[in-house]
């Protein structure tokens, strides 16, 4: 008998490659958008002779995307369930006008020597207005069964009228002390680096905890190297970003709106991935009949999603008023288009059932990057709309192509 030698394949390497391949296929559209974002930044960096990637412009770019992306985080869940919200821009604009009015007229009389209390009161009112509007819309859509397109389109017109009534055609100042820090302030450079260390430690803890839970319940584990590489990539991006914004000599540090956006993105991501509320939203969008037969309360979940959308519009409106420093007759106009486009660019399917919050953040950054770059090149506004529309159509075509290949 002859002894035969069987060569065993390198199992760890095979597992790593298969894990990376599977991850790439699952998030192909998101990775495509990341490549597109890098290409956009590269082009504008060359076209502006480096000004586009200067610390000042990077700091301002992320601050500008925060208002749109705050609402895009909620829009993902709205679209995932097969609905749409056309009123988000005007609702944020109306909240900004209300907050500006309170800052300029009411609180200066009620709290003349307490700007912090005046700012807190304005924020509470702004968030309440957004949430109450979301409750009203959610009830009509979910329980009275009026199509979301019609309800939110009507809201858009109503809110536009309310903005005009509130402003009376005038600009309302909202640049009072303390309140202006919400949209224009910065986290000190030292604290910014400390925050990076905390986030990196949290990512490692979350990864280890997730792997332990998967092992406990018998779920398949991805290769450890895949998870380590993902955390390393996130950490490197954070370090690069903080290093750039800290080198902005006039105002070093992370802008407060970016911090707020990061916090809300993390919370909404956790809710969408790790709670019944989030999983039910994807189930409703994936197959409404199957979700209903499984005992999921479709009305209740859609209602809560629109309440969340209203709350996030309230947050965006407060940031908008603080960042711009005024409440104007055009507040929030056109934001709904950028919000919807951000969600779709980030991989949220127009067919429902698919979408991620991090993807929407990338989409929001792409929209802001295009606007900022074209403005720096003094491009006509018409060209900005043409390019944004073309990018959006391309994203939808890519989504339809991927769905067709998967089926």
Proportion in β-strands:
under 5%
Strand-and-helix sequence, N→C? HHHHHHEHEHHEHHHHEHHH
List the strand order in the largest sheet. Answer: 1-4
Mean pLDDT score: 85
Helix content: over 70%
Bulk shape: globular
Number of helices: 16
Strand element count:
4
- Class inferred from helices and paired strands: mainly alpha
**Oligomerization state of this entry?**
single chain
**Biggest β-sheet description:** 2 strands, antiparallel
Gap between N and C termini, in Å? Answer: 51 Å
**Uncertain residue segments:** 1-12
* Radius of gyration based on Cα positions: 23 Å
Summary?
By secondary structure, the protein is mainly α. It is built from 16 helices and four strands. Among the domains are: 215 residues, no CATH class; 64 residues, no CATH class.
Descriptive overview:
This protein is mainly α and 407 residues long. Among the domains are: 51-185 and 254-333, no CATH class; 189-252, no CATH class. The protein has helices at 11-26, 28-47, 55-80, 88-110, 115-142, 148-167, 179-184, 189-216, 224-246, 256-274, 276-286, 288-293, 298-324, 335-345, 357-376, 381-406, and strands at residues 172-173, 186-187, 254-255, 326-327. The strands form 2 sheets. It has a two-stranded antiparallel ribbon with strand order 1-4. Strands 2-3 form a two-stranded antiparallel sheet. It is globular, with a radius of gyration of 23 Å.
Which key features would you list for this structure?
single chain, 407 residues, mainly alpha, two-stranded antiparallel sheet, 16 helices, 76% helix, 2% strand, globular, disordered N terminus
